[in-house]
């Protein structure tokens, strides 16, 4: 069935129910008569629904992380596809991985309907272009993972991208708040976030987007942990591009090794600022060049490098 047919099917004689994100929330019927505090309290109460919705899909999300990690280790790429708020959340998540985990450009890539303009200005009709989605996914390969982000589960742009990704042999996933998403048949993993109706009817930038952001936070962080970009709960892959981050690398080295600040600074300098190398050198009591070799041999995993050093 084509994307066009899938989307038409959702409208046929009520065969496919309206997405819960488009329904009215009984608790907010009198929204415009409430005080500012009451509006905020209602929004806050509904935000908790988003947290519970994510908790319910954690087993599925864990499976997706493990599949993505396996493909990532053999050189595969993770792609996010979304429009509007969903697209912006994907771009935000992908952008923050480079400084946090020293992730090479092109390993986690975000695609947004309407391109860069859509990051700061609504390009509302872009989400309706299946062709744009297909074009955005044109370079996807069989080792890649494609994750569609669409609160309604019906966005043509996302559908076009997932269709191309699936035909290329990539693993596909859909993150939506619709248990009857038209695009679900295109996803190997269908993550349904039961966020229900919004406080402001149809405004999925609220709890649907909050749940989506939590899924992205969890997915990308767990993926980076799985592929060795952390050690313990420390951000050992951080890129020290400013004074704040340079101070952070010193603190991380101190936390990991127990070194005093002056000794940590000196060790980092001798390791050319390579935090992982410095950690392995200190804990394994080896020379910096040996520590660097250990880290390189184990593809950046401090845990694996230390395990070899202790043998």
How would you sum up this structure in a few lines?
By secondary structure, the protein is α/β, with parallel strands linked by helices.
Describe the structure.
- Helix 3 (58-73) crosses helix 7 and helix 8 packs parallel to helix 10 (275-284).
- Helices cover 50% and strands 8% of the residues.
- It starts with a helix and ends with a helix.
- The protein is built from 12 helices and 5 strands.
- The longest helix has 21 residues, at 36-56.
- The mean pLDDT is 93.
- The chain has a 5-stranded parallel sheet, sandwiched between helices.
- By secondary structure, it is α/β, with parallel strands linked by helices.
Uncertain residue segments: none
**How far apart, in Å, are the first and last alpha carbons?**
56 Å
Task: Quickly count the helices.
Answer: 12
Radius of gyration, in Å, reads 22 Å
General shape = globular
Class by SSE composition: alpha/beta
Fraction of residues in H or I helices: 40-55%
Largest sheet, spatial ordering of strands: 2-1-3-4-5
Biggest sheet character: 5 strands, parallel
Instruction: Write down the overall mean pLDDT.
Output: 93
SSE pattern, N- to C-terminal: HHHEHEHEHEEHHHHHH
Strand content of the residues, in percent?
5-15%
Number of strands: 5
């Amino acid at each position: 069935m084509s994307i066009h047919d899938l989307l038409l099917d959702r409208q046929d004689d009520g065969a496919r129910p309206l997405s819960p994100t488009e329904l009215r929330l009984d608790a907010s019927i009198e929204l415009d008569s409430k005080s500012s505090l009451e509006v905020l309290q209602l929004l806050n109460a509904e935000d908790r629904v988003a947290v519970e919705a994510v908790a319910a899909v954690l087993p599925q999300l864990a499976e997706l992380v493990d599949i993505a990690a396996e493909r990532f280790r053999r050189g595969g790429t993770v792609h996010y596809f979304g429009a509007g708020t969903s697209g912006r959340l994907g771009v935000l998540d992908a952008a923050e991985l480079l400084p946090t985990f020293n992730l090479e450009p092109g390993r986690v890539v975000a695609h947004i309907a309407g391109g860069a303009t859509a990051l700061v200005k609504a390009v509302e009709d872009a989400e309706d272009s299946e062709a744009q989605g297909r074009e955005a996914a044109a370079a996807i390969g069989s080792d890649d993972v494609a994750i569609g982000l669409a609160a309604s589960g019906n966005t043509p742009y996302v559908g076009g991208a997932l269709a191309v990704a699936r035909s290329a042999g990539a693993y596909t996933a859909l993150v939506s708040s619709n248990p009857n998403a038209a695009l679900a048949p295109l996803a190997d993993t269908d993550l349904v976030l039961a966020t229900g109706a919004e406080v402001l009817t149809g405004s999925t930038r609220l709890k649907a987007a909050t749940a989506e952001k939590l899924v992205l936070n969890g997915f990308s962080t767990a993926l980076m942990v799985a592929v060795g970009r952390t050690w313990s709960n420390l951000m050992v892959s951080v890129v020290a591009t400013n004074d704040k981050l340079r101070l952070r690398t010193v603190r991380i080295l101190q936390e990991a090794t127990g070194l005093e600040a002056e000794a940590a600074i000196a060790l980092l300098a001798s390791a050319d600022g390579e935090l992982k190398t410095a950690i392995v050198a200190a804990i394994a009591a080896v020379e910096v060049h040996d520590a660097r070799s250990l880290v390189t041999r184990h593809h950046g995993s401090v845990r694996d490098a230390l395990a070899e050093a202790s043998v």
